[in-house]
Amino acid sequence: MPPKNELASRRILSVTEEELSRIVLDIHDGPVQNLFAALSLITRLQNEISHLSFEQLQSAGVGELIPIVGQVEKLIENSLHEIKFFLGTFRPPEFHRRTLASIAEGLVYQHEEWTGCTVELNILPLPENISLPSKIALYRILQEALSNGFRHAGVDRQWVKLWSEGNMICLEVIDEGKGFDPPPLEGPTATEQEAHIGLRGMRDRVALLDGTFQLTSSPGKGTQILVKIPAYV
Questions:
Q1: Where are the domains of the chain?
Q2: CA angle at 209 for the pair 204 and 214, rounded to the nearest 5°
Q3: Which residue has the higher pLDDT, 170 or 129?
Q4: In the chain, where does DSSP find H-type helix?
Q5: 118-123 and 157-165 as β-strands: parallel, antiparallel, unpaired?
Q6: What 8-state DSSP symbol labels residue 187?
Q7: Are the C-beta atoms of residues 45 and 65 closer than 8 Å to each other?
Q8: Fold classification of 93-230 (topology level)
Q9: Neighbours of 76 (CB within 10 A)
Q10: How confident is the model over 112-142, as pLDDT tens digits?
Q11: CA 40 to CA 33: how far, in whole Å?
């Protein structure tokens, strides 16, 4: 049987491909469909205007068209917001040059700006020269946890804590959202469902660095994610 790290490496490569596919599908099923709807409304608007005289445009008929314009504006606004949110997942935060604290602060600020949510961030003293793989793993895990809270748990506030214990870096993300029954993530019954791809990705990133991943949640009682990985690998 392949070593644990080798299995995690294989899984993370598979998960990364699935994550990219999911983002593409999310963009197609979300903002792209909104833009098509907006285009349909614009076409309808053009057709209605083309049959109106100048005098009619200045009459009550214009008022009937105003709600359509409002719908178009909202659809385009939402689509641009979603596209910006998805594209942010591809933007590297200069892992080499920045500290983990700076990277986490930037991600939280970005999440708050794009979603309107509030994130209470508590960063305790951390080692200066945390290894690149650890920075990347913690960034991606925090990114996924914040996104899950916003998109699935329906929360507008989350709590994030980042600290060190010996040579381990610890990350905790908590929300008071609707919660869920976590799927099995370890052992022979570990989930491989597409719906759990984000959880699998977090689990495998941690396993790849010989860390620990703990997920606690239940319906109506929010969610807690606790990750511990070595500062230097």
A1: 1-91, 93-230
A2: 55
A3: 170
A4: 4-27, 33-50, 54-57, 61-87, 100-115, 132-151, 197-208
A5: parallel
A6: S
A7: yes
A8: Heat Shock Protein 90 (3.30.565)
A9: 17
A10: 988 888 999 999 999 988 988 888 889 989 9
A11: 11
Read off the pLDDT of each residue in 80-106 and give the average, rounded to a whole number: 76
CA quadruple 187, 188, 192, 196: dihedral sign: negative
Which pairing describes strands 118-123 and 212-217: parallel, antiparallel, or unpaired? unpaired
Residue 60: pLDDT band (50, 70, 90) is very low
**Residue 53 pLDDT exceeds 70:** no
Q: Is residue 160 helix, strand or coil?
A: strand
End-to-end alpha-carbon separation of the chain, Å?
Answer: 23
18 SS3 class: helix
Contact between 149 and 177 under an 8 Å Cβ cutoff? The reply is yes
Residue 21: other Cβ atoms inside 10 A: 12
* C-alpha pair distances (Å), 34 with each of 53, 79, 165: 30, 6, 47
* Residue 49: pLDDT over 60: yes
**Token pair in block for residue 68:** 């359509």
Q: Which two tokens stand for residue 140?
A: 């991606």
CA 115 to CA 97: how far, in whole Å?
27
Each residue's pLDDT tens digit, 25-48? 666 666 767 777 777 777 777 676
For residue 32, the SS3 value is helix
Indicate the pairing of strand 223-230 with strand 118-123: unpaired
